[in-house]
Structure formats: structure tokens, C-alpha cells
Amino acid sequence: MSQAQFVPRIRSTSLIVIPARMASTRLPRKMLLCETGKSLVQHTFEAARRASRPVGVCIATDHEEIVAEVRSFGGQVEMTNPACTSGTDRVAEIARRRPDVDIFVNVQGDEPELSGDTVDLAIDLLERDPRLMMSTLATPIRRREQLLDPACVKVVFDAQGRALYFSRSPIPFVRDWHDDLLLENPPNFHQHVGLYAYRREFLLEIAQMPPARLEQLEKLEQLRVLNAGHAIGVGVVDEPTVGIDTPEDYAAFVRRVLAR
């Protein structure tokens, strides 16, 4: 894992929140799938607990079946408004109930192979730079098919590690392409890892912002923050997490688990 040099950190109280909704178009009842012997939400909960910095992990859901499942394996769970339109809204609802927490980390419920170190890095970025209100992660792209895949969200960032733009299109666009560009170091292309850390007051602020036009076009909520003129710190990790979005993704995850 690599990261930039920072000033000494200011320690904060942090909490992981895993938004886990029941509705899932491409993979119905995704959170409750359990072909490995554990539900997907339990795998993600256990992965999140590997982080050393947060004081705990809370699952925020909209459905009683998920509540029952989380309680069955001893996890902390809270019901949130079914009308929440995004995971950020669900995390913000928990933040309104927890004024004792400084930093909230939004971990997607379908990230069962998340590294605890990645969570700690996102928190560290905020603790070391008091000017940042929000942080996220990225990992190098080394395959052209991944670069061209609109399901793979790309990010470009400046020399200070602050996001310039996120897109489903290949960015930066290369006018004179050659395959060696994928092998260069430092890497030319980065995949966005969909994990966010927010300072509490900023999380509550962005939950009230109207959607931006760029956000609506790309279907990428983080563009709301850039459109409003706020900085997003980006930490670079060597290994991507693998989100579970389709039946094929889940089948591959099951094979990996059973092969361990």
C-alpha cells in the first residue's frame, strides 16, 4: 500500500457504516445470499472489522430480514428510512444519531473482501490533513479491458492526491495509445475503490445537497462533491476490492471462498 507524506495526524473517533438495502436489480436479495455458509452481509461485516482504527461497525438497513440476519451473527444493526435514495443518505441518517463520532466510513455492503488497511488509510487521510472533509481510495488499472469497462469507475487526481474527476469513461484519454502505458510506474490509470470517509458535519451537509448535473449524467454520486467545489482526498492501494454486483461476481466470490 502506498500513500503520500502527511503532517502528524489528529486522532479522531471513527465508525464504519455498511449500508445494506434489500432491493438489488442485478442480483436479487444480494445481502442475504449464503452459498459460502455465511451471508454476503456477514462476510462484509467481518471484513470491515479487520480495520484497527474505527471504534465499531454498524449495518444500516431498510429491511427487517437483514436486521434479523445481522443479529443472528452478533452484528450491530440499525433500521433507516426505506425512502433513502443512496448509501450516503443511509450513512448520514446514522451520523445524525451519533454526535459522538467524528469520522464515518461508508463501506458498501457488497465488498466482502475488503482489506482493513484500506479503511484505516481512508481515515488516516482525514486525520493527517484537517483541510480535507472527505476521502476515498483508488488502485492502479493494468488491463485495457478494465480501463474501457464503464462498470469500472476511473479517477484522476492531482499531485497532492486530490480528486480532479471520476468517470465511467477512460480517463485520462490517451491520444496516442500504446499498451506499455498500462505498465508504467507511477501508474497512468486508476480505478476508484468505492469506499468513503467523511467528517460528520460534512456528511450531513452533502446529504442535503441537490444532485449535480454531472452526477446525474455519469450516475456517480461523488461528483456532487466536486461540483460543489469541495476536495476529495484519494489514497492509493495496491490491491482492489471486488464488489459483488452480478450473479457471475457472486459465483466467482463463492469459488474463491471455498478454495481457501
Structure description:
- The chain has about 260 residues and is an alpha/beta fold.
- It is about 30% helix and about 20% strand.
- The protein contains nine helices and nine strands.
- It has a seven-stranded mixed beta sheet with strand order 3-2-1-4-8-5-9, with helices on both faces.
- Helix 2 (about 65-70) links the parallel strand 2 (about 55-60) and strand 3.
- It is globular.
- The two termini are about 25 Å apart.
- The model is unreliable at about 1-5 (pLDDT under 50).
Average pLDDT reading: 92
Rounded to the nearest angstrom, the radius of gyration is: 18 Å
CATH class: Alpha Beta
Largest sheet: 7 strands, mixed
CATH level-4 homologous superfamily = Spore Coat Polysaccharide Biosynthesis Protein SpsA, Chain A
Distance between the termini: 23 Å
Quick recap:
By secondary structure, the chain is an alpha/beta fold.
Q: What's the helix and strand layout?
A:
Elements: E1 14-20, H1 40-48, E2 57-61, H2 64-72, E3 76-79, H3 87-97, E4 103-107, H4 116-128, E5 134-140, H5 144-148, E6 154-157, E7 163-167, E8 190-199, H6 200-206, H7 213-218, H8 223-227, E9 233-236, H9 247-258
